[in-house]
Amino acid sequence: MPLLKVDSLTKRFGGLTAVNDLSFAIEPGQIFALIGPNGAGKTTVFNMLTGLTPFTSGTARFDGQELGRLPSFRIAELGIGRTFQNIRLFGRMSVLDNVMVGFHCRTGTGMWGALLRPPGARREYRRTEEQAMELLKLFHLDGIRDELSCNLSYGQQRGLEIARALATQPRLLLLDEPAAGLNITETETLMGQIARLRSGMGKTILLIEHDMKLVMGISDRVMVLDYGVKIAEGEPGAIKADTKVIEAYLGTGFRGAHAGS
Amino acid sequence: MSRRKVLFGALAAVVLLLVPVFVTDDYSLHLFIMTAMFMMLASSQDLIYGYTGQLHLGQAAFAAIGAYITAVLMIRFGLSYWLVMPLSGLGTALVAMVLCIPTLRLRGLYLGLATLGFSEIVRLTLIMWNSVTRGPMGLPGIPAPTLGSFVFESKISFYYMILAFTVVTVVALQRVVHSRMGKALMAIRDDEIAARAMGVNSSYYKCTAFALGSFFAGVAGSFYAVYISFISPDSFKMMDSFLIFAMPILGGMGTLIGPLIGALILYVLPEATRVFAEYRMVWVGLLLMITMVLQPKGILGGVRALTERLRARKSIEAQ
Asked: Phi, psi (5° rounding) for residue A250?
């Protein structure tokens, strides 16, 4: 059974159809890439899957559960975590606190627990702190745990966003252009990290990315959107060769460039 | 670091407990009492705005609600203050929760305007609801709280009472801020959409922060009622809401100590410059302007930035 099954998903903003009758399925353990030109509706798909944008029609089932009317925080609880294309960290909070917020849906101390601080609440807080530190280590951010996240470099902020999303303990992780703005070395590090999320942590990943080397290098399956419509879906090799995709997005130079390298 | 904090705390406790020994004239002690009450109001204001990012301009209205609940329950029903005080806080929190229903969708300036409108509704209700509030005449003769045979009448006894309330408020807020809930509040402040995507039920937490902040405002108002023993719709004016709003900003928002510093300055300064009569608010305005231009993060924010720079310089020199 697929982990995520989307059927005829459609979103209209007034007269504009941002996503049109989109269907796809992601199997557990897959790295599934969503590519396409700017404005193709990729981020809209993410926003619908995470409850930030209501759909106009269609269904999306995550592990059998319909996501349609669920608020964002419930979807996070179900196990869909995400990052944002235009980094959305909690700027005036420390690096550590950013990740600790991610653990929110996996912990339970409420207002009374905070006020009265029973032993259980203290234990939970300490455990959360330790788990958050472990995630920070994965992204080499443990040394700057007390720094405000707005003071981090761009690459560090990208890493922190992924660490924070992982803290929600997602089964499906949505990464929205994780390599945007990264240099070649940083992108390569990121590729390794994403591959490890799957192999080491067993995460299923849905990825939006413009860096074709990254997409073609790590994805099991690629889907191409253009003007909100799916124009192709398949294995990276097949997508690279697809004439419709080359015309709409990759450009005719792509095949040649890759053949050369 | 934490040992230094403990030491500082112990020193502050001794100083605060000994205040009535050194401050013997009633007027000065009154200033201490009122400052502490404003510290309570400013700290709880900071939970709502500084930590959760909800622009709130009605803290004085919440204090008024708490004060009136106390006055009515004590005068009409003769209930004990120790029952009435928490009820005043809870009643105020309940009003805040009801206010949340329409204002939850509002953000920034729009929320600020809504809370301002709410303050006006409270003021008019207090004036019009004659049968309960006696309108503009106010409610005199609020009985003094008693504890066994001890009657809270002297300024000294009220000083210790408000000191205890303020300490409890600050400790409670400190605990909330350094908890899962506090982090959720700050996340909402910094980016509500991202907070929701991380599993934070933002509506719930915005309401909870609003209710908790107004609970302490209600208790502060309740204290005022028994301390002055008379309240009227003029006891807590809109100007007080603005002053309470400015306190954490001046002292440093989201710092716990900042609102206390802000309350000290913004309450004591107008009183200390009473000789200038109606011009005294000019000084307050000037101080606010200068601080905001020189140090937008408030006084404590400025101090922290400075110590951080010094520490950075030291570590560079050490290398």
From this structure: -70, -35
